[in-house]
């Protein structure tokens, strides 16, 4: 699923970037929704997220976006009749990624993976020291999307370290960038020491 335009319909769609608790608070505060459709293309993840937020809203359901959906599909393949039944759609971030189909080429390398993704630390280092994951840029066609989303994921990792009160747009956050709960948990607090 690669739909960079989901944020165009502000007020009806958002990406689930936080913990379920923080996401629920954000939806209530920013959008005032009482019925939520959780959408994504990893069924286990969207089902779990919908269960975790179900007590916070009057109505919660999930929609599995088919792998055949593409960027030309209106509403990411979700039928408009389904959309009308909910105040808003939460796109599960665990699904809102380019699926990494290259992990099968790792062979016997002891690189930790999960659901087809290479697990990394915040600087994209894999479970093998000094081996970094930078996406699956292997052909012109696959490379463009992978490079864009590798950058997006890196930006999210850095962005979630920002102070939660940092404002950049009317939604109260940088687009696609979640944050840690406290500024001191971020790398910014270390930079601040050098600025003094």
TrEMBL record:
Query: What is this protein's name?
Result: FAD dependent oxidoreductase
Protein species of origin:
Xylocopilactobacillus apicola
């Amino acid at each position: 699923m690669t739909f960079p335009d989901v944020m165009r319909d502000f007020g009806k769609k958002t990406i689930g970037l936080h913990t379920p608790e923080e996401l629920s608070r954000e939806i209530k505060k920013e959008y005032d929704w009482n019925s939520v459709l959780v959408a994504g293309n990893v069924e286990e993840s969207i089902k779990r997220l919908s269960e975790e937020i179900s007590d916070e809203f009057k109505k919660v359901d999930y929609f599995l976006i088919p792998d055949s959906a593409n960027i030309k599909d209106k509403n990411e393949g979700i039928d408009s009749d389904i959309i009308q039944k909910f105040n808003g759609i939460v796109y599960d971030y665990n699904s809102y990624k380019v699926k990494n189909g290259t992990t099968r080429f790792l062979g016997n390398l002891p690189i930790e993976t999960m659901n087809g993704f290479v697990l990394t630390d915040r600087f994209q280092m894999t479970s093998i020291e000094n081996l970094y994951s930078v996406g699956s840029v292997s052909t012109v066609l696959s490379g463009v999307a992978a490079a864009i989303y590798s950058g997006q994921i890196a930006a999210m990792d850095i962005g979630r370290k920002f102070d939660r009160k940092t404002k950049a747009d009317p939604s109260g956050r940088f687009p696609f960038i979640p944050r840690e709960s406290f500024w001191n948990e971020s790398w910014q607090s270390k930079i601040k020491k050098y600025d003094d």
